[in-house]
User: Which sequence fits this backbone?
């Protein structure tokens, strides 16, 4: 039933999204868009090495995209790049392959488990995870270029 997908907890999360807005000086920004439903999530990220130090987002999405963005915003600060990449893969497996939801501080994502039965809703649910991983990749690429430039300058 669609009622399982749009349950009270999802509506509550969608209605209370922390860290809305944009950062004035992000290390990277990324946008993820679902062509199917038109949902869009834009995120700004700051990192110190592999650790997220600041985060903001602009969420123009359905209740599922809003709920997953809300969960991301509640736990992303202090998370590291590997953890966030693993999280995206865990959520993808949960939706597309019947995998288990994440544990620990990300266990709220279990509320999105009923979405697995509605393939058309997978993309909007994954937007925030895809955008965060994209931004991490951008930051790491910039860092690698800086390191390469320094190595070349020193030699």
Assistant:
């Amino acid at each position: 039933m669609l009622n399982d997908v749009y349950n009270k907890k999802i509506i509550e999360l969608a209605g209370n999204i922390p860290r809305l807005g944009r950062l004035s000086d992000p290390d990277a920004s990324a946008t993820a868009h679902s062509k199917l439903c038109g949902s869009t999530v834009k995120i700004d990220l700051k990192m110190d090495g592999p650790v997220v130090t600041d985060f903001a987002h602009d969420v123009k999405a359905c209740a599922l995209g809003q709920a997953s963005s809300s969960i991301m915003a509640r736990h992303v600060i202090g998370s590291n790049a590997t953890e966030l990449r693993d999280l995206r893969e865990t959520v993808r497996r949960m939706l597309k392959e019947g995998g288990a939801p994440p544990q620990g501080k990300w266990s709220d994502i279990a509320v999105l488990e009923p979405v697995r039965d509605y393939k058309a809703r997978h993309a909007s649910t994954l937007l925030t995870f895809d955008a965060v991983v994209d931004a991490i990749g951008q930051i790491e690429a910039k860092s690698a270029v800086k390191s390469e430039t320094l190595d070349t300058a020193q030699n």
